[in-house]
Amino acid sequence: MTRRSLESLVSEKEVWLSRKGLLHEIKDYSVTQRYINIYTTCGESFSVRNSRRGRASRVLRNNKYRKICKHCKVPDEKISKFLQKASVDSTAKVKVVSSTKPSQSKKAVPKAVKAKKKGTENSNGSLIQSKVKDQGSVNAISSGQPRSKIQPTEERNNIPAFTPSQKKRLEALLMPEEVIPDPSENLNFQELESSLVNRRKKDIVKIYEDDRENQLGKIERIITKFFVDRGFLEIKSPILIPIEYIERMGITEDKELFEQVFKVDKNMCLRPMLAPGLYNHLRKFDKVLPDPIRIFEIGPCYRKESDGSQHLEEFTMLNFCQMGSMCTRKTLENLIDELLEFMDIEYEIVSDNCHVYGATIDVLHKDMELASAVVGPIPKDADWGITKPWIGAGFGLERLLKVMHNYKNIRRASRSESYYNGITTNL
Ligand code: ATP
Ligand code: 9VF
Ligand code: MG
């Protein structure tokens, strides 16, 4: 099933659901290439990414709200329209979709919203690449800003506007803390580019002189230690797996995820998830290890993706799980909390639904899903020879890095030849 764009949902529903579950009426909206600017009747205005997978489109596809905004006075017909399930096709008008199989679209209605405040200083400084210290050579480039901000070409009146390819080049060279200077500074492209190239060369030399660690490798080692210290056994299972495992996970040919699997030949594929390998280990070690069994794996997963800044086709998953006693939602949430506290990452928890596991607990940072977690057992366990209760969660390591380093695009955090520790290598 194709997920609908946020734009088509906004145009159909004409209402907006805030993070707190407040239903607003949309008075007006305008669409740019990647964002939708929304104006509510109560006078709020904001921009959201026009994505099919973000929180906004998920909650608009759903039909639940907590309260209606007093100031918007949403008309009854708009509330009823919102309460109907969103139609699947972006061109179709409102229709109620009933289905006997579990919905493949996400249902994310914030239930227990648990926001953790991030401190101003990152207590886990060793994980974070050092901020730009060398300010001397290019005083026009200021750092210390929350994120890079390039002034729109139209606003630059003193200097020739940058061409799209120049902007792209500068964006690649800039680190998240840096901004392109005020146009009045009158720096031309060549000056800016060569100063930034020098900075980035220095950054890479500094890593070479200091710890020489790759950020993806390092975060894997840190998380590995975190789980080993808490009694979890480290697993490394095959990346090349039988397609039959995918089907046994309930991902049959009619499911969206099945289409996302990289098949290698008639029988084999690159794993899109770690669960099959972990299921097999849980079953085998149930005869060996004392109760409860705690295991985890960190390693590459592959999915064909089309969505840009939060999805990679080659990414690194962490999946930890426990089987046997103490497999409660509380144990699971405590582990998630401890891990994200340790990484100093702010998060909230929302309830969601997926066809593999049914009810899931999703861990979000702003609009981005960091993890999906489940309290088992589930009916599918029988196909894997599992009979005991379990809990587990799957996290994307590049998404954690994206948050920790404030990258605009997840690509900076990925296995890559274009970036090293988030720094462009095209120097
Ligand atoms: P999304 O809805 O964001 O595509 P998902 O629900 O399909 O994610 P899960 O199957 O729950 O993803 O996988 C667990 C975690 O793995 C996700 O929460 C995310 O952090 C990470 N992840 C999944 N797909 C990708 C991807 N293509 N690129 C990077 N990380 C990913
Ligand atoms: C949680 C997300 C089935 C007992 C081996 C552990 C889990 C969700 C993980 C992952 C997936 N599930 N991307 O299962 O921990 O499998 O979809 Si188990
Ligand atoms: Mg998920």
TrEMBL record:
EC number: 6.1.1.26
Entry-linked PROSITE patterns: AA_TRNA_LIGASE_II
Region annotation (Disordered) ranges: 99-162
Enzyme class: ligase
Top-level division of the source organism's lineage: Archaea
Aminoacyl-transfer RNA synthetases class-II family profile domain sequence ranges: 218-427
Bias-annotated ranges (Polar residues): 136-151
Any one GO molecular function term: ATP binding
InterPro entries hit by this protein: aa-tRNA-synth_II (IPR006195), aa-tRNA-synth_II/BPL/LPL (IPR045864), Phenylalanyl-tRNA_Synthase (IPR002319), Pyrrolysyl-tRNA_ligase (IPR012739), Pyrrolysyl-tRNA_ligase_C (IPR023877), Pyrrolysyl-tRNA_ligase_N (IPR023878)
Keyword 4Fe-4S: no
Any matching Pfam family: tRNA-synt_2d
Any one Gene Ontology cellular component term annotated for this protein: cytoplasm
Catalytic reaction annotation: tRNA(Pyl) + L-pyrrolysine + ATP = L-pyrrolysyl-tRNA(Pyl) + AMP + diphosphate
Subcellular localization(s) per the UniProt record: Cytoplasm
Biological processes per GO annotation: tRNA aminoacylation for protein translation
NCBIfam families linked to this entry: PRK09537.1, PylS_Cterm, PylS_Nterm
Protein purpose: Catalyzes the attachment of pyrrolysine to tRNA(Pyl). Pyrrolysine is a lysine derivative encoded by the termination codon UAG.
Family: Belongs to the class-II aminoacyl-tRNA synthetase family.
Protein name stated in the entry: Pyrrolysine--tRNA ligase
Biological source species: Methanosalsum zhilinae (strain DSM 4017 / NBRC 107636 / OCM 62 / WeN5) (Methanohalophilus zhilinae)
Gene that this polypeptide is encoded by: pylS
